[in-house]
Amino acid sequence: MILRIVTYNIHGARGIDGKRDYLRIGLFLKHQNIDIALIQEMDTRFQDRDSVTDVEELKTDHFKTFIAAPTMENSLGWYGNAILSRFPIKNHNVIDISAPGREPRNILEVFLDTPKGPLHVVNTHKGLKPSERNQQMKKLNDLLARKSEVPLIVGGDINEWQTYSGALKKLNTALYPIPSGPTFPTRAPFLRLDRMWCRPSNLVQNSEVLKTKESKFFSDHYPLMAEIQIY
After folding, report:
1. Which pTM value belongs to this model?
2. Cα distance between residue 187 and residue 220, in whole Å
């Protein structure tokens, strides 16, 4: 069974054309036949919008399940991470990895019930400051250190462009990095901020940055997609 998974920082659904539009992102994911979407920077905190409508437009009629992991909330809505899935979610866990005085961050962990069995999926968005990011990556490594036979996909906006980063090397040792290319900024991408990993090593069949005429404008990040095969 082949599944298509993306990690996508959607920049609050505000494209580089200035439009804020969840529906066009949802339709893009549907037309790309995405089964699971790891979303960062979902933002529903706007006076002229409704949070429920934003979620439904992102889901379209394609995704059956939506799990939110807010890092900030107010009376209008919330901001943070989310996972969209065409499969039921058996359980989920949100882990706070915020650093004092910095923007709140978290890890969203879910276990999906696919027709071929369980799939472990982890979505995260790391901080901008190196010392902050190192501590957050350590917490991610600690989470993933436990042994399991359940296939695992980890993805997100890691905000790490230094390939020699010690925290990145540790994760690359614990898991199998999925090949990727530059995803940011969409006007002229040169930074590999968005990354994915897997376990076991033969889980991923293909991967690519989804550079299309649509995705160039929908966010300041391109989505990174991986095709995995569950036996």
Report:
1. 0.96
2. 8
